[in-house]
Amino acid sequence: MKHTDIKDIFTKKEYIGTTVTVCGWVRTARDSKNVAFLALNDGTTLQHLQIVIDKNGDCVLPEEAAKLGTSLKIIGKVVANENHGTPEINAEEITVLGICPPDYPLQKKFQKLETLREIPHIRVRTNTFNAVFRVRSVMAAAIHRFFQDRGFVYMNTPLITGSDCEGAGEMFKVTTIGYSDKYKSAEEYYADDFFGRKAGLSVSGQLEGEVAAMALGKIYTFGPSFRAEKSNTLRHVAEFWHIEPEIAFCELPDLIEFAEEMIKYIIRDYMEKCPEELKFFEERVEKGLTEKLLNVVNNDFAVVDYTDAIELLKKADVQFEYPVEWGCDLQSEHERYITEKIYNKPVFLINYPKDIKSFYMKQNPDGRTVAATDLLVPGVGEIIGGSERESDLTKLLNAMKDKGMSTDDYKDYLDLRKYGTVPHAGFGLGFERIIMYCTGMQNIRDVIFYPRTVGNIR
User: With contact defined as beta carbons under 8 Å apart, do 6 and 40 qualify?
Assistant: First the structure.
């Protein structure tokens, strides 16, 4: 049905004095002897449009129209409110599109986020999630624009793969057989399966992305990744969205410069295009959010060597839950201390010990570290993990051997080092984590539509 978006009623002054048709859901309702008021929202803006019904006039207010959650079509004249000048509609005709019974879950004005996670199909109607998912859409568009404007080719890497990019074994198995006791061995089982070998959902499109970069120079992927990591932290879900550029003829300092440019671009675009949502998050979710984001876009990021960071943490007058020693994999408490207490801005941590990083990262001349970087941001921790990739075939084979990996599953990847290898680098940006940072939302489950976690799927 033809109708006008409520956002347009608020942003385009030419609607004042005209008769329009609007549709939406009732957010609040007030009634008195002579007049009734409905607050209508259609999802195009956080603002609710006030509908005024003169009970002494010709417009009839159906009893079910004043129930929270009921959907309506309303025809009426747009006028400026006498007290504050914002648009409202004097209703002339009200049509109920869908009634809503008293057990509607959003009867209470404020509900805990934990409670709303139990009703993901309904929570999107709240102001908080209305804002979150509109911001998510805007930021996704900004990411594509950033790469497209810089000549990157958008690639769709496979979601079903026969290799584990991270080598950690945290993959979901893909099979058409399911449980069966008729096979004597795993080899026999997989030989009879759909692909004739073991397959899983991709944890990253990086390996295939490197293949594309060796032909197209600059590529990026933007899609879902899957990790069967039994973690119930505020930052982990089993299915998340991943942005992964791969750049040929690129070394670690170039990659760091590029990543900083990308983060600043995304945040600036969000602040420019979503002022209403940013104001909402500032008031309701994180005080000082705007100042925090401005601190990011207006300052250079710090670049700190892992070894130096370990020394700073060891000198810190803090009792960490996890002890800090050179060679340890930094925990969230360490990452946040570095960004929030020491530098108070995003930090690129570089040159990690090779034993705690993936096989494909370029080995530094010291023999102990690799040319890797994590971007740590205040309030979230790591949002980017990247590295220069090992381009030397012999060193790559030795790294795989040290980690007990089979080279048979990585033949295509190894061929890249055999046929015209070049220095190249790339990173992965967790989309949900940058959304968390920009909105102040503390739990990753609250920035993704249907979160998938251990023991939870619907």
Answer: yes
Residues 6+ apart with CB under 8 A from 179: none
> Average pLDDT of 328-340?
93
Q: Kindly state the average pLDDT of the residues 145-172.
A: 87
Can you name the residues that pair with 264 across neighbouring β-strands? none
Within 10 angstroms of residue 215's Cβ, the number of other Cβ atoms is 9
CB–CB of 72/23 below 8 Å?
A: yes
Average pLDDT, the chain: 94
Q: What does DSSP assign to residue 330?
A: P
The pLDDT tens digits for 290-306 are 999 999 999 999 999 99
CA distance 438 to 103: 34
What is the model's pTM? 0.93
CA 441 vs. chain centroid, Å, equals 11
- 131 neighbors 115 (Cβ within 8 angstroms): no
Cα 193 from chain centre: 34
Question: Is 167 a residue whose pLDDT tops 60?
Answer: no
Side chain identity at 221, as an amino acid letter?
Answer: T
Cα 214 to Cα 153, 164, 255: the distances in Å are 12, 20, 16
Q: What is the DSSP letter of 362?
A: P
**How far, in Å, CA of 42 to CA of 9, rounded?**
12
Do 55 and 34 contact (CB within 8 A), yes or no?
A: yes
DSSP string of 82-133, one letter each residue? TTT--EEEEEEEEEEEE---TT-TT-SS---HHHHTT-HHHHTTSHHHHHHH
Please answer whether residues 8 and 15 qualify as being in contact, where contact means their C-beta atoms are separated by less than 8 angstroms. Answer: yes
Do the Cβ atoms of 38 and 72 come closer than 8 Å? yes
Model confidence pLDDT, tens digit, residues 185-208: 999 999 999 999 999 999 999 999
**Do residues 235 and 381 touch, judged by C-beta distance below 8 A?**
yes
Question: Which structure tokens are listed for 12?
Answer: 């385009």
